[in-house]
């Protein structure tokens, strides 16, 4: 039996199933009136929708016009920055997104890309009340931001966070937001998949996938479970033309909960130190290790002073679960650890030489050893305009690099600087200059201060080593 509601086809298989199991339908099994076959999400929407808001962000964008010769990078490299650089033009750029009120006192969760670099943020409720908002936490690595509005004593409607780990594929969900700026819109669908880690839109990837229609403007909006709880923040879609193709992704509420806790407490967001590196188990690795199927993360390196070492992890171990949650790759493992607060512990299910073990893993903050010593390099050298720091587990965790890396890393690059024109990028690790290893920021400062006619440089970018030469 197919029941059509508002353009949606809902398959009602219950009656057919009863017929198969119990023979012909009894009179009591057949709907007797229209009310008995009426299906509606209206009560749920009426309760939840007031807590979903529109977010308007204003950014000041500067563009330079005219004097194209002076903007040419070759001209600037030969003659340096010229005092006349053309006319600078400023304009206000407006963006629209969605958000969810998660505390009556005015805490609002949205996507970081909705409010990124915004000078002004306005939150508009469904009843048209408007509030100025300030940014409390911006976490680019999960694309989640937390705002705070001054309610002036008013209590705002809000949604409680649900347990995203309780979701199952096939569960009904609702997406609430403001697609294309047409106004608040509700769409329905199901959870199509869980723990999607291959979607490269943030550092911590374990997305809820849904077929509920999500379009531009829905970013930061609510993904609701049937109990009215917030189980995800809609973040991205798979699309060829900007419209919904039935594949949308949401950040799970259990990750949002950690970021919200940091915002409410006023303490910096610090995630537990993983202290080991690994790679996914392929079919070849599984065969070599005697595993029944490819699953888990093969440990490659373990820090000598971290919680992994204290837990008893050794290279060659395969981590297959964290607190009863299976992990199929490195991203899933990092996500599970990142959703837990520092000070607690988790149980790692580990396979070692065919034997299953449970290892308690303490969740501690990554140490800042050596101190980062953030330094802006200036002067006439190829590094002018970069801010560099000493890599430590804390800095690596903060910027999204493996915790075992050491050396001097590029943290930030000034626009139109010498380093930017030469192609340096954030997270480049400067390994050597003219054959001399760069181990600390002081090494780079000392080398940059020397006048050289030629610079032979070696940098690490991801898994690649790049060597190039610059003439002074």
Commentary on this structure:
The protein contains 13 helices and 27 strands. It folds into four domains: 2-39, no CATH class; 43-269, Thrombin, subunit H (Beta Barrel); 276-362, PDZ domain (Pdz3 Domain), CATH 2.30.42; 375-471, Pdz3 Domain, CATH 2.30.42. With 472 residues, the chain is of the alpha+beta class. The strands form five sheets. Strands 21, 22, 23, 24, 25, 26 and 27 form a seven-stranded antiparallel β-sheet that branches. A six-stranded antiparallel beta barrel has the order 3-4-5-8-7-6.
Query: How much of the polypeptide forms β-strand, as a percent range?
Result: 35-45%
Report the end-to-end length measured between terminal Cα atoms: 78 Å
Poorly predicted runs:
1-28, 73-84
Provide the domain count: 4
Looking at the overall shape, the CATH architecture of the largest domain is Beta Barrel
Please provide the count of β strands. 27
**What is the CATH topology descriptor of the largest domain?**
Thrombin, subunit H
Q: Tell me the number of helical segments per DSSP (H or I, 4 or more residues long).
A: 13
CATH top level of the largest domain is Mainly Beta
| Rg result | 27 Å
Helix/sheet category: alpha+beta
- How is the main sheet built? 7 strands, antiparallel
Roughly what percent helix? 10-25%
Backbone shape? globular
Overall pLDDT metric: 84
Topology:
Elements: E1 2-5, E2 8-11, H1 14-22, H2 34-37, H3 42-48, E3 52-65, H4 68-71, H5 73-79, E4 87-101, E5 107-111, H6 112-115, E6 120-124, E7 130-139, E8 144-149, E9 172-177, E10 185-196, E11 207-210, E12 222-224, E13 230-237, E14 248-252, H7 253-265, E15 276-280, H8 283-289, E16 297-302, H9 307-311, E17 318-322, E18 325-326, H10 330-338, E19 345-352, E20 355-362, E21 375-376, E22 386-390, H11 393-399, E23 408-413, H12 418-422, E24 429-433, E25 436-437, H13 441-449, E26 454-461, E27 464-471
Antiparallel strand pairs: 1-2, 3-4, 3-6, 4-5, 5-8, 6-7, 7-8, 9-10, 9-12, 10-11, 11-14, 12-13, 13-14, 15-16, 16-17, 17-18, 17-19, 19-20, 21-22, 22-23, 23-24, 24-25, 24-26, 26-27
């Amino acid at each position: 039996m197919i029941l059509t509601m508002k353009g949606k086809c809902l398959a009602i298989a219950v009656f057919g199933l009863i017929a198969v199991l119990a023979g012909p339908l009894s009179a009591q099994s057949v709907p007797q009136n229209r009310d008995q076959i009426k299906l509606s999400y209206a009560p749920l929407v009426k309760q939840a929708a007031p807590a979903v808001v529109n977010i308007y962000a204003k950014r000041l964008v500067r563009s330079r016009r005219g004097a194209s010769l002076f903007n040419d990078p070759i001209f600037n490299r030969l003659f340096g920055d010229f005092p006349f650089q053309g006319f600078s033009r400023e304009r206000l750029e407006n963006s629209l997104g969605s958000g969810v009120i998660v505390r009556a006192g005015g805490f609002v969760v949205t996507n970081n890309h909705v409010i990124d670099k915004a000078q002004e943020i306005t939150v508009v409720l469904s009843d048209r009340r408007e509030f100025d908002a300030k940014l409390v936490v911006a976490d680019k690595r999960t694309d989640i931001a937390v705002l705070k509005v001054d309610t002036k004593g008013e209590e705002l409607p809000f949604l409680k966070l649900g347990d995203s780990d309780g979701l199952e594929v096939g569960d009904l969900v609702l997406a609430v937001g403001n697609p294309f700026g047409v106004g608040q819109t509700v769409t329905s669908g199901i959870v199509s998949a869980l723990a999607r880690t291959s979607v490269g839109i943030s550092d911590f990837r374990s997305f809820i996938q849904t077929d509920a229609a999500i379009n531009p403007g829905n970013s930061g909006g609510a993904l609701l479970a049937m109990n009215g709880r917030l189980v995800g923040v809609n973040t991205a879609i798979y699309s060829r033309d900007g419209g919904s193709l039935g594949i949308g992704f949401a950040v799970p509420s259990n990750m949002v909960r950690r970021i919200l806790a940091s915002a409410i407490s006023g303490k910096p967001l610090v995630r537990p130190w993983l202290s080991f590196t690994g790679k996914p188990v392929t079919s070849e690795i599984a065969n070599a290790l005697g595993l029944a199927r490819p699953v888990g993360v093969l440990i490659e390196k373990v820090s000598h002073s971290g919680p992994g070492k204290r837990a008893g992890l050794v290279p060659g171990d395969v981590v297959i679960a964290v607190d009863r949650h299976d992990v199929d790759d490195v991203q899933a493992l990092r996500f599970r650890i990142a959703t837990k607060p520092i000070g607690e512990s988790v149980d790692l299910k580990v396979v070692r030489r065919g034997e299953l073990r449970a290892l308690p893993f303490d969740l501690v903050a990554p140490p800042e050893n050596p101190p980062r010593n953030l330094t802006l390099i200036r002067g006439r050298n190829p590094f002018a305009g970069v801010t560099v720091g000493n890599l430590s587990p804390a800095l690596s965790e903060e910027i999204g690099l493996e915790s075992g890396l050491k050396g001097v890393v590029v943290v930030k690059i000034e626009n139109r600087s010498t380093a930017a024109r030469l192609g340096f990028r954030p997270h480049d690790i400067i390994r050597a200059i003219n054959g001399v290893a760069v181990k600390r920021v002081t090494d780079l400062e000392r080398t940059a201060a020397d006048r050289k006619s030629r610079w032979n440089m070696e940098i690490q970018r991801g898994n690649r080593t790049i060597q190039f030469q610059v003439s002074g």
